[in-house]
Amino acid sequence: xxxxxxxxxxxxxxxxxxxxxxxxxxxxxxxxxxxxxxxxxxxxxxxxxxxxxxxxxxxxxxxxxxxxxxxxxxxxxxxxxxxxxxxxxxxxxxxxxxxxxxxxxxxxxxxxxxxxxxxxxxxxxxxxxxxxxxxxxxxxxxxxxxxxxxxxxxxxxxxxxxxxxxxxxxxxxxxxxxxxxxxxxxxxx
Length: 189
Ligand SMILES: Cc1cc2nc3c(=O)[nH]c(=O)nc-3n(C[C@H](O)[C@H](O)[C@H](O)COP(=O)(O)O)c2cc1C
Known about the structure:
Layout: H1 5-15, H2 29-40, E1 51-56, H3 59-65, H4 69-73, E2 76-83, H5 84-117, E3 121-122, H6 130-136, E4 143-152, H7 166-169, H8 177-188
Antiparallel strand pairs: 1-2, 2-4, 3-4
The structure holds flavin mononucleotide (FMN).
């Protein structure tokens, strides 16, 4: 185990930000490989591994994925997809309504953290047109797009977002509804 691994992991988690501006610099293939491996190593329900990755570098395809400028600006865009059958064949409805989101979320977060560890910026994008993406990327019917992740060298250093204090959202023994209600009410006063 790397010395101070817990400190390194903590820093990567803490300092990761959504990056929405990139400099014009290619990413070496060896780094792209490490990023894909990070996604591939993520846990999945029953180890069914329904998550797959599409790497897009072609500017013409990037343009069709999103109208947001920073997606086109990014040297690579990874589209995270799930092969529905691989999980529903074992888990049925639970696979479709729950596990595909868990499985793809864990792979996406691994990718974002690996990018940060490699001094690359990335952004988890969930706002896209599913139908268009499926058509442009020629996804079969049982393969669903879950996220678009533009990746590149950052051209910005955003401040951390405002967060609800941890003590308001961490509960002891049972859900303490009153404390989060009171906190949210205090924001509107
Ligand atoms: C499920 C999900 C969907 C998101 N979709 C978008 C998006 O469509 N466009 C975008 O710019 N950011 C998107 N984000 C990024 C969030 O806005 C961002 O994570 C949040 O503001 C917190 O900032 P941070 O990532 O720097 O901690 C998404 C994040 C998640 C987890």
